[in-house]
Each structure stands twice: as C-alpha cells, then as structure tokens.
Design a protein that fits this description.
With 269 residues, this protein is an alpha/beta fold. 34% of the residues lie in helices and 23% in strands. The chain has a single domain, classed as Rossmann fold, CATH 3.40.50. The chain has a seven-stranded mixed sheet with strand order 6-5-4-7-8-10-9, sandwiched between helices. It is globular. The relative contact order is 0.14.
C-alpha cells in the first residue's frame, strides 16, 4: 500500500481542481453544473431531482448487474451528485461516501442539486481523493471514479499507479467503475492500464457517440456473464429502477467479446 501511495502522492499536482469555477445553468427544466467551461459535468431534471438524467450515470449503475450484495460504495468526485443521490434514494442497502476536493462544488451540489446532508447512509467529505485512496485499502464494494476538472480527467487520476491503487482499495469481490470520454485520444492508453491493474477482468459500456464510456474493472473474475442470467437480473432490477438495464446488456455484448450465450473478458481467453 505504502509504495503505491508514495507514487501517487509524488505525482500529486492538481490544485486547480480545488479552485475550479463552478457555474450552474438551466434549460428546458434541466439544471446543469459546469466547471469553468461550457461542458456539462452533471445534470438534474428539476421536477425529478433524484432521477438519473444523463445516460452515462444510468450506465454506471450497471454494477448492480454484476454484484448482488453491495453494502458500501466509495465515489471520488461529487459534481452534482447524480449517482450519489440515486443510490441514496433507491438503494437503501448501500452506504455511500463521496470525496470531493472542491468546497464550492459541495456547496452548490447541496444548494442547487438536492444532495442531502450527511447522515448514516451518505457522507460527503471535503478532501483529496488521491490521499483518501492511498490511506484506505480493502475498503469498499464499489469504487466509482468520476473526477473531472475544467480540462477533463486530471493526469493523476489515469496513471498506472492510480489504477493499481484503485484495485487495492476494493474488497476481494469489489467492482471499479470509471467514467471516461470516448473521444479522448488517450482512451486506449487508459483502458490498457485499467486492464493491467485488474488482470484483464474489464468490460466497457459505451453510452453514446463518441460520448461517455463506463469502464468496469473486477477485483476477481466472479461475475456471472451468461446472457440469460444477466437478462433475468436486468428484468428484476427494472421492476424497481427506471434504468434501461436490458439495453445496457445488449451494448455490453456488442462492445465486448461475446457469443450468443455469454460475454467474455480478456481474462477468459
């Protein structure tokens, strides 16, 4: 742990993230959060603040397809708190922690995006996600990385050491989830690093063209990836979640190696 932590902290160089200007816009009943640019970092439908407005946030919730007993979730990067709010409202069995370096984001997320105050099931902590990860191992079932600043993903959040640390932070059957941008020229580099950290136990789930891509890394290869099993799980989840899980399964089959019967990871070869 300490070797990885030192490598992470040696590269620590993202003070701008704590000082990014936070702006809010509204159009057609949707409120959006921006960090020093026109890029939408988070969005919320004002009449339904706990719903997941953006497709990529619904795709992130696909970890429910693979892990049937999630108790804890750790998120690095709050934004408008879309996923944290959804889990709080619709997954009462999950206890969440969110680490956010920018106090302005925390304030606006609570004042403008209905992020609840801290309680026993949701805690938003002002702090540096790199340091938090370096100090916590075997700490969570789900680790979500959704850390962007005005320039995109900070370099320290896509290094090999960082992804190695993410694997260390997960429990033995944990799942890593990161939101990447499909048109990023370094996407293939980041994906290769994630595959190395998770021994090729990785799936990708594109949500648009070029759009966001949810990448899932599995601490161990335990997931039942038979398509019939996944579809049954999706049908069960769709009874209580307004999320297109069945569509996401078809996208997973399309964009990862698969047959008519199951989806494969590179580790299966």
């Amino acid at each position: 742990m300490f070797r990885v932590a030192k490598s992470l902290l040696r590269g620590f160089n993202h003070p701008s993230a704590a000082n990014d200007t936070v702006d809010v816009s509204e159009i057609n009943g949707v409120r959006a959060l921006h960090l020093g640019s026109a890029t939408v970092q988070s969005a919320m439908r004002i009449r339904d603040p706990f719903a997941l407005e953006l497709t990529y946030t619904r795709a992130i919730m696909s970890f429910l397809l693979f892990h049937t007993n999630v108790e804890d979730m750790l998120t690095i990067g709050l934004g408008g708190g879309s996923v944290a709010k959804y889990v709080y409202a619709h997954c009462p069995e999950i206890v969440s922690k969110v680490i956010e370096i920018n106090p302005g984001i925390i304030q606006i997320a609570r004042n403008q995006f209905h992020v609840p105050d801290n309680d026993a099931r949701l805690e938003v902590i002002e702090g540096d996600g790199l340091i938090y990860l370096a100090e916590h191992t075997d700490a969570t079932d789900i680790l979500l990385i959704d850390a962007f600043d005005r320039n995109g993903i900070p370099p320290d959040f896509c290094s090999q050491d960082f992804f190695d640390q993410c694997a260390t932070t997960l429990r033995h059957d944990g799942i890593f989830v990161i939101n990447l941008w499909g048109s990023d020229k370094n996407f293939d580099v980041y994906l290769t690093r994630i595959e190395q950290s998770f021994d090729n136990r990785v799936l990708i789930l594109p949500t648009g063209k070029p759009g966001n891509i949810a990448v899932f890394g599995f601490k161990r290869g335990f997931a039942d990836l038979r398509l019939n099993s996944l579809r049954e799980r999706a049908k069960t989840l769709e009874k209580t979640h307004k999320i297109e899980f069945l569509q996401f399964i078809e996208k997973l089959a399309e964009h990862n190696q698969s047959t008519n019967n199951r989806i494969f990871m590179k580790s299966d070869r």
